Amino acid sequence: MEIPVNTFKRGIYAGTQQIGLWCSVPSNFTAEILAGSGFQWLLLDTEHAPNELPIVYSQLQACMEQPQTHPIVRIPWNDPVTIKRYLDAGVQTFLIPMVQNAQEAKAAVEATRYPPKGIRGFASASRASRFGRIKDYYERAEQEICVLVQVETQEAVDNIEEISAVEGVDGVFIGPGDLSSSIGYLGRQGEAHVVELIEGAIRRITAAGNRAGILTPDETLAKRYMAAGTIFTAVGSDTGILARGSEALARRFL
Q1: Nearest to 20 by CA among 48, 44, 52
Q2: Is residue 2, in this structure, part of any structural domain at all?
Q3: 208 CB contacts (<8 Å, ≥6 apart)?
């Protein structure tokens, strides 16, 4: 049995725009539906969603039916024990929240690597190795693992070149909600100052030789950020689609 190819990682390194959807509904049923929608990646959130490892495990299984759509998991914190458990479940791409500096970025990478490059614990028959059926898993796992770190404060933006330069950081994701809050624009992600700060950060990530990403359901902003250089861009969320879509349907009849 062969190790699954990380199509998302291949795509961002090739410079091909990867369009994604945020998934906060903790359900394998909805994950399976969304995986067939045509997005190149789905973000399975465990930070700001009532989602836990057993559900994510089933969501990963649901996504296997649509290999063109790559599941990414945002873990709740930059914690090596949490990362280890999700690695064993078969997660290949991680979004690590609230990374403030190069040291924290390096720690995130090390949590995904076996010794001597890191501290990942050894498991002989986890889902990651398809229960021991991928014979060369331990030698090849690193090349299919993708680490995305999330920049969400002014401090992190100030350190963006150092974060981008950390070996093993495959992408730098800007969290517009927390970033706007950290500079005094709580809930106002579309303010001109916030947008200009984000565009500048995207350009700095790209200039540093890394790959930039973001989430915004605002189509105009999404296109602006892609023009500035994002290479992986989430353009909406399952909860947003469900809430706004159901509201629009109700308004047509009520």
Answers
A1: 44
A2: no
A3: 160, 161, 164, 165
Q: Is the omega angle on the peptide bond into residue 76 within 30 degrees of 0, that is, cis?
A: no
Active-site positions read 48
Cβ neighbours of residue 209 closer than 8 Å, sequence gap 6 or more: 164, 165
Q: Residues 130-162: pLDDT tens digits?
A: 999 999 999 999 999 999 999 999 999 999 999
The total domain count for the chain is 1
Q: What is the CATH number of the domain that holds 35?
A: 3.20.20.60
Contact 84, 121 (CB under 8 A): yes
Count of CA atoms in the C-beta half-sphere (13 A) of 74: 23
What is the span of the domain harbouring residue 211?
7-251
* pTM beyond 0.90: yes
